[in-house]
Write a structure and sequence with these properties.
Length: about 375
Amino acid sequence: SGRRNWTAAKDLQRYRHNYPGLIESENEEEEEMWNLSFYKNEISFKPQGLPIENLLITWWGNYEILEENHSYIQWLFPLREHGMNWHAKPLTYQEIQAFKNSQEVMERFIRAYKLMLGFYGITLVNEETGELKRAQNWIERFENLNRFSHNNLRITRILKCLGEMGYEHYQVHLVKFFLTETLVEETLPSVKRSALDYFLFTVRNKQKRRELVHYAWQHFKPCGSFVWGPHDKLLKYRPRSAKPQLHQKATDRQETGKKCDDPVGKDQDQSPEVEQKAGDAANSQPEASDEDVKEKISKCVLKGGDDEEEKDLSSEAEEVQGTAESDCTKESKKRKLDANVADAKKGGALKSSADIEHISHNLGECAI
């Protein structure tokens, strides 16, 4: 439609800010924590359910029952809000802490996550990082996802619950997976809108959320119709994947044999060099730092990163070109000065102390 779903945006903003204004009862008795009791295998989910341990074992790979039963998802992934199953109890802050403090419960939570990933045709590659990949039967499972849109609501619930349980890094990988499949691979057209309106904005980590918005913008077609982020900021955004290259030492840069008359952008390595943070620049050139140059550089440094490297933008190149030319001028002066000193040594000793002071001053000005 070319419009953003502002109802979804408002709902997810409330979630990310931990439901401001939410009043919940403080239950001291553990048996009143229905979600915790279910995850401890003490009660069955309602209505007409079974204990979680039986569910995780007998329903594994049973895609038909996972598709048709609509009561279990609110119990497997509880939220601090009511869902469609009014027999399920909203999650409380006290329960969240109890979940995190129980190894038994959290192990079952990961198994529940794997259960649903398998249902969607996804495999958890690394439990530590949350890395994902397609399952072997992904074609069949993706067909189911494209056919039954109610699964998009389930995925939103799962993403929210991951954030509540402290698995924000899992959120990032799951959202990135769906953005890739919908925008890049184009295998899940029926999930695309939910991925942009809902999945993307469940990520509580602000920096990671910005990275994902930028990733979505890079692959959205047509790019000009992207309504989930300001285009002016997206154009200036630079992924952090290039950050390790920004810490290259000055001596390493000199050994590359670059010429000062090379234009900005001609050499791929020059762009990250001129976009270093002011702090990084100060570490490599403490004696000759320029406050104006630092300010320009700091404006070009992006607060974020992504696995996909964005191409250099002409507007940013123009902004930092002056800095690059200044560095080239200093390098040229230094080389000329070194040559003059060498000629002076060949011709004999320097004539006066004033000459020495003048040369020392020039060397200081040319320091990199």
